[in-house]
Each structure stands twice: as C-alpha cells, then as structure tokens.
Amino acid sequence: MPAAVAESASTDQSAEMERVGIEKARIIRSRDAEAAMLRQHFADRGARPEDDIGLRRECERLAAELAEARQESARYRQLVVDIENNAPPPILSGVGEPDDLKFIVGIGPVLERMLHNLGVTTFRQIARWSERDSAEFDAKLPEFPGRIERDQWVTQARELHQAKFGELPSDRPPRL
Predict the structure, then answer these.
(1) Which of 21, 85, 112, 167 shows its CA 20 to 30 Å from the CA of 146?
(2) Domain identity same for 112 and 135
(3) What is the radius of gyration, based on Cα positions, of the chain?
(4) What pTM does this model have?
(5) Average pLDDT over residues 44-52
(6) Number of domains, the chain
(7) Which helix or strand (DSSP H or E) is residue 43 part of?
(8) What is the C-alpha to C-alpha distance for residues 115 and 121, in angstroms, rounded to an integer?
(9) Are 161 and 118 in contact (CB under 8 A)?
(10) pLDDT score of 89 more than 60
(11) How confident is the model at residue 168 (pLDDT cuts 50, 70, 90)?
(12) Residue 147 has what pLDDT?
C-alpha cells in the first residue's frame, strides 16, 4: 500500500509541476506581448512628439513651474545676501502690506493661500489669536488638523511681528 501512495503522490507532484510550467510559460508570453505592444506604442508616440498636444501642455506647465521655482529661489538667495550685507530684509517692509506668512514654520504656499482666503494676511492677526481663535481657524483648516498648536503659530507670529515692527502686538484688536 505505501508504494501505491508514494506513486500517487509523485504523479500528483509531477502534474502540479506541469501545471506550474504551463502557467509560467503563459505569463512569460503575456509579458512579452505586453512589452512589444508598449514598445510599439512608444515608438509611434516618439515619431511625432510635436503633434502630441497633451505632451506640449505638460511641457509648458512644467516650464512655468520651473520658472516660478527659480524666481522663489532667487528671492531667498537675495534675502540671504541682504542679511549677510546687513541690509534690512523684506520682512521689515512697511505697514499695511500682507506679510509673507510662509516665514512661520508650518505654513507653506497652500496654507498661506488658504489663510489669505480666510482674511488672515499679517503676523499681527495671528499673534493676536486667543486659544478660541486658534481652535476656530483649526476647524476652518480641516486638511491640517492641529497644525496651529503643534507648530506654535501664535508664538512665531508674535516674534516675527516684533522683529518687523520692534514691538509686540497689542492683545486687543484695533477699534474700527
């Protein structure tokens, strides 16, 4: 009896190996066919890139992003040069202008734009926030929960306002 069981097991094992071999061959053929199709697609596409409007638009968009990034880099480079030459940096510019809120750690271009849309444009405004105000603005920025407290925007805004105007912002908002 044990010889029959061993023979049956080896038959099952060889049948399984044959099925695995057939499946491997099928997968390889499928991969080769897909690779050939992709090569042909890219060869067709590469033959006339000037005709591809989507590709042209993507190139234009990337070129615009690159130009914007270069301008931003030049702005920061100039800021460093001015600081090294003891010139007052742009942060010390006049009153009434919106502040560059990106100087606050935790605020990038997206958050700055969102804050501007909510009417927040100066360090003074953020520096005057109470805990309740912070919680209200945190609720208005659901994509960035807890960011205001975690990155201590109010403390940073007070320091930046003091650096700009030489005084701490008053705790009371101005009378209208």
Answers:
(1) 167
(2) yes
(3) 32
(4) 0.44
(5) 62
(6) 3
(7) helix 2-47
(8) 7
(9) no
(10) no
(11) confident
(12) 92
Show the CA angle centred on residue 157, arms to residues 152 and 163, nearest 5°: 135
Per the structure, the complete domain to which residue 160 belongs is given by 97-165
Co-location of 65 and 32 in the same domain: no
Residue 66: alpha-carbon gap to chain centroid: 15
Report the distance separating Cα 81 and Cα 84, nearest Å: 5
Tens-place pLDDT, residues 106-116: 999 999 999 99
The SS3 call for residue 32 is: helix
Whether 90 and 160 have beta carbons less than 8 Å apart is answered as no
Q: How far apart are the first and last CA of the chain?
A: 102
Query: Is residue 83 located within the same domain as residue 105?
Result: no
175 occurs within a structural domain: no
**What pLDDT, on a 0 to 100 scale, did the predictor assign at position 81?**
72
Contact 108, 102 (CB under 8 A): yes
Residues 43 and 2 both lie in one domain: yes
16 and 35: one domain? Answer: yes
Q: Provide the CA 14 distance to its chain's centre, in angstroms.
A: 54
